[in-house]
Amino acid sequence: MNWLKKAVLPLCLVSGLASAEVAVIVHPSNNATLDQAEITRLFTGRGATFSSGAKATPLNLADSAPARGEFDSKVLGKSSSQMKAYWSKLVFTGKGTPPKELGSVAEVKAAVAADASAIGYIDAASVDATVKVVAKF
Amino acid sequence: MKFGYLPVLVAAAVLSGTASAEVNISGFASVVGGKVLSGNGVPEFGLGPTFLANYPIVGVYEEDWTFKPDSKYGLQFSADLTEGLTATAQLVGRGADDYDPAFEWAYLSYELNEHWTLQAGKKRLPLYYYSDFFDVSYAYLWIRPAADNYTWQIFNYTGINALFNYQLGEWAVSGNIYTGREDDGKNKLLSDYFFRAPVREIWENIVGGVVSFNRDWLDLRLTYMTYENRRFIDGQPRIWSSTGTDTRRGKFMGFSANVDYNNWVLLSELNRLELDNSDLDTYMVSGGYRIGSWTPFVAYADFDSTGEVHNTTSVGVRWDFHSSAAFKLQYDSVNDKGYDGGQVAGDSKAITFGVDLVF
């Protein structure tokens, strides 16, 4: 299997370098504690409130943003295609609506900074004081 | 209570696009072609080599290439009327119906609270695991859910549906309870395929429920439905030998278990319909393994009742080549062991391929 390692390892390194850390962010006034299971619940439509009981509004990044794929695979444990199949089942049976999608990291950051109920994710390097980081993956 | 006009009203409300409402449009489509490679048909019905890929709409592959049986498109219009109220209408056109668009679904949805949502209107019957998203092929692995399982002539109902959603420890528990009726003036499967005469098929006093348990990689689902059936063939009521009247009761129950673990996918369902003092049993098992964007799969599905006995073995691959589109290629081998006139379409081997997308 040596040939396989030689072929696959460089790919892993390349994708390792390309994959940036993803920061899950909320409004600075939000004191909720969030673990991976709760973040998954909110982003799969299986829950709509924070641990405090307050309403949660999840915000997704568009397919084209690199952090979207990172979030889907690291946090939700699915590929973006699997998530799209999951949501199409719910949308077309009237059982759920996917999180609203925003086009860029800047838009997500601005939306989270402006809304106490919002929860989003951006690449960790783009975090600033306008938002609060609740988890990093 | 009469629901007959409700779907029309909902569809009109959604499309009129009241100034205050935000209307979301989404959709799905499948373009699938294929042909029968070999088959023996059913000589006693005068039927040549045939692969019946979709029973309810009579989606039939024969020896010439065709793109009709599994191709379809759907457009969903959803108007957020605010304060928890939404109106949704779904326009669906299928190749087997010459792509004639029809409002397949139209319902009002009201979110009572975080756990419960009430819906009224026309929806798809959630009998089997894939019944209510049967047309959204992008959402599942194969070109179509196992034809041997999804054989029932009625697939919509008009009525009331209550959806629920709870978290119990590690388990997400969701499901719905529904009641309603369907009066299909000219049922396609019964009229065009089985009786070769106009058949009006009525399922009424439908009462059913579904409950699903989800946790990490495991998905379990239980389903139950009971209904009363009346049928008019060429305008004449059918008198059922089991009851001696024009009404008979059917009871449907099913269990499904799905696993998605470390790139392995295992899908299964087991169902029974009790009708006329006999059992119509169906089951399906399928497995796949994800290798990047490729998922090769195998499947086996079976139908067993008095007289009608058939199964299908399938092998194929799904390739997620785009963020909202998948290519699929599938080979199906049908074994029709029907007896006493219970054959459906005979043995066949067929190849189908196509693209599913959502937008």
Structure description:
- The complex is a heterodimer of chains A (137) and B (359).
- Chain A contains five helices and five strands, in the order H-E-H-E-H-H-E-H-E-E.
- Chain A has a five-stranded mixed beta sheet with strand order 3-2-4-1-5, with helices on both faces.
- Chain A is an alpha/beta fold and 137 residues long.
- In chain A, 41% of the residues lie in helices and 18% in strands.
- The N terminus of chain A is likely disordered.
- Chain B is mostly beta strands and 359 residues long.
- In chain B, the strands form two sheets. Chain B has a 16-stranded antiparallel β-barrel. Chain B has a two-stranded antiparallel ribbon with strand order 2-3.
- Chain B is globular and about 60 Å long.
- The chains are: A alpha/beta (137), B mainly beta (359).
- The interface between A and B is medium-sized, with 20 and 34 residues.
Structural features:
A: 137 residues; alpha/beta; 5-stranded mixed β-sheet; disordered N terminus; B: 359 residues; mainly beta; 2 helices; 19 strands; globular
Please render the helix and strand layout as text.
The complex is a heterodimer of chains A (137) and B (359).
Chain A: H1 2-18, E1 22-26, H2 36-43, E2 57-61, H3 66-74, H4 80-91, E3 100-102, H5 105-114, E4 118-123, E5 132-136
Parallel strand pairs in A: 2-3, 2-4
Antiparallel strand pairs in A: 1-4, 1-5
Chain B: H1 6-16, E1 22-39, E2 51-54, E3 59-61, E4 72-80, E5 85-94, E6 102-111, E7 116-124, E8 156-168, E9 171-184, H2 188-195, E10 199-215, E11 218-233, E12 236-237, E13 248-261, E14 264-275, E15 278-289, E16 294-304, E17 309-322, E18 325-336, E19 348-358
Antiparallel strand pairs in B: 1-4, 1-19, 2-3, 4-5, 5-6, 6-7, 7-8, 8-9, 9-10, 10-11, 11-12, 11-13, 13-14, 14-15, 15-16, 16-17, 17-18, 18-19
